[in-house]
Amino acid sequence: MDKEVTIYDIAKNIGVSPTTVSRALNNHPAVKEKTKKKIFQAAAEMGYQSNVFAANLRSKKTNNIGVIVPSLNSSFQASVLAGMEKVANEAGYNLVITQSLESSEKEIANTRSMFKSRVDGLIVSLASEAEQLEHFEPFHKKGIPVLFYDRIANSRDSVGVTIDNIQSAQLATNHLIDQGCKKIVHVLGSTKISVYAERLKGFKYALIDKGIEFNEDQIIVLNEINENAAEFVIDKVLQMNPLPDGLFVSNDACAASCMNQLIQKGIRVPEDIAIVGFNNEVISRLVQPKITTINYPGFEMGEVAMKNLINYLDESETTLLQNTNKITLRSDLIIRESSIRR
């Protein structure tokens, strides 16, 4: 049987000290990138297997952070994960990513498997069906930090990173009112999800504030708000009498698709119906006319969430809930041609 390769063998092979090899394999910042590369290459060629498991047992740390997203099929979630990955990578942590597919059952199963695999911390954006939060209790009991982002839980044991969805929806609606819109339809996802419930509040506040009457038929709630829902939305819109003159859609892909449907049916955007989206996704800048939208800083949200979690893990005497259990990021209205009615 072949003798197992050790750090001493690698050190001897490339002429560095065993301490340098050990540090490089643990991604220590004191080792130069060039040396690190050389060591990793030698380790791979010599068939070195680091005994991560034994090291983890000693340190009681896995250096893994669990992330549960509602769906990976979203450019917003992709940018959040990119922000998380950047920060985690720099700090020597790995991400273990799973998706709940908007199902609370799957979210509970994912949470259990994360707990069993002993992640050091957990970051979650809640599934639309998630109503109970008991499945996070084992983490709280064991002192494993849980942090929510975007769709956050009202829980005193956890921190949430979000934007001010009420204010963002007010900004979007006020802009349409300022453009002369009198009948605005708001298209949103399930109001069981905190972000959509808050945007609906903001929409209503803006109307009340400007003395515009609000009717329930001005709201179209979708199980899934995406480009595939546009046909259903526009069918409903075109049945309204009088026709709306403003459309505030809580997702850019859906907004772009709604705009295409309207243009195909001979309705002019923004002259007949002005449109505002949400998220500032790439699609909002690719279509004609370009879509006015709320800039939702996904990458920054990922960075902030991960930084807070890692700060807590690296300095456990600090508390995750230092001054507040909610971090609110800034979001802005980006005005483009889809809503400007001259």
UniProtKB/TrEMBL annotation:
SMART domains according to UniProt: HTH_LACI (SM00354)
Record flagged with keyword Translocase: no
Keyword Transport: no
Lineage top rank: taxon: Bacteria
Short name of one Pfam family: Peripla_BP_3
Keywords linked to the UniProt accession: DNA-binding, Transcription, Transcription regulation
Annotated GO MF terms: DNA-binding transcription factor activity; transcription cis-regulatory region binding
Domain HTH lacI-type: 5-59
SUPFAM superfamilies named among the record's database cross-references: lambda repressor-like DNA-binding domains, Periplasmic binding protein-like I
The name this protein goes by in its record: Catabolite control protein A
Organism: Mongoliitalea lutea
